[in-house]
Amino acid sequence: VKFVLNGKIVNVRAHPMKRLLDVLREDCGLTGTKEGCGEGECGACTVLVDGQPANACLVPFAHVRGARVTTIEGIRHAAALQEAFVEDGATQCGICTPGFVVAASTLRADASLDDVRAALAGNICRCTGYAAIHRAIRAAQETAARRRRARKAAGGTRQGGRRA
Amino acid sequence: MRTAISPLCLFEPRSIRDALRMLRDEGPLVPMAGCTDLYVSLNFGTLAATRFLDLWRLDELRGVRMVGASLRIGALTTYAELQRSPHVRRHLPMLVEAAAQVGGRQVQNRGTIGGNIGNGSPAGDTLPVLSAAEATLVLQSAGAERRVAFNGYFTGYRQSVRRSDELIVAIEVPPIGGRQWFRKVGTRAAQAISKVVVAGVRGTKTGTGSGVHVANGRPRIAMGSVAPTVVRVPRTEEILHSTGSVQEAQDALQAEIAPINDVRSTAAYRRRVAANLLARFWEETEDK
Lengths: 164, 288
Fold this sequence. Notes:
The complex is a heterodimer. Chain A is built from 5 helices and 5 strands. By secondary structure, chain A is α+β, with helices and mostly antiparallel strands. In chain A, α2 (78-87) packs across α3. The longest helix of chain A is centred in the C-terminal third of the chain and has 23 residues, at 131-153. By secondary structure, chain B is of the alpha+beta class. Chain B is globular. The interface between A and B is medium-sized, with 32 and 29 residues.
């Protein structure tokens, strides 16, 4: 099955009914995507399929033929979010964190707290609760906005990242 | 994953025609779409089936359009697409609300309305909406097509009139007069399977005397998670329509639902919540 994994075309042989989660971890060696519940409740295995969040534990491998799959290893601007998660105490045991970061990566830079809540409604954290996670995401948005302003002030012509 | 993968067999049709032929010649096959429920059973090893028909690539089954004044929703339309569709937002806002409360974004991006029906769980969030909307299902088999009233589709717990060689290809919703209302009660606001789910339409009477359009006058109320299938509650509807007495309607409602104790809730709690939601529906849809 050919698909685009984190920006590169790959060709992977696996059973069409194998879970995308297992293909990523076992056949592609990408273990950043975690298995939490295995029933689409917790969001720990969140990846992007054609830019949209999906639970990799509920996606048959057959469904990603020709699709773009982005895992935590391939999220652009993940570092800023990850730093904010550390800063704000939004990570503890860590198993939910990659899923939260992937889900949060789809938020627009100007997303409101309600947007953040809706985007993360499919992710469950049983250590920190959600306030710290929401705070971290807001902080990452602010950092990104500050950098954009600074770049603009410096007369840079590069387009600022639209994503948080 | 508790189910062994190697004995599983997946048929991957390229067109609806292909799919219907496979259903006829290679059956029985379990149709699969967004897999947001099917893979839960597979993960837990509770699914006996080993042969599946993948519908995910059949783009002909996706999308929403108007056919005359009716809404035609392709069976493969996802919950996310339902929420974005201007047609659904305009004509069936209660379906937008239902779709927004299924799982989280991850599930809404994959799960489909046809899957919600095909899966046939009495807790399916879109089912009370389709019941109150008096939708029609379009079923196709190789060489034939038939239309079935949604309210006659389910015959028992996860049982329906769909034959094993048929596919649900579309849902048709006639125009609805009056106010639409939807409410789901689960353990938490997101990511919860419903304990009670209600959709209602409250018609508005127009004109006077013999000019009253009664077709839209009677409220239509459907409930999920309170019986083996989604149910309409005609006696309750009739009482609200003729007397407007919420108390009497709540009493009648108790005879029209048959909730059970299960992992998510108790029968008594569901009865109470169903009655409360009925009152809420009536209060919030009143002409102000």
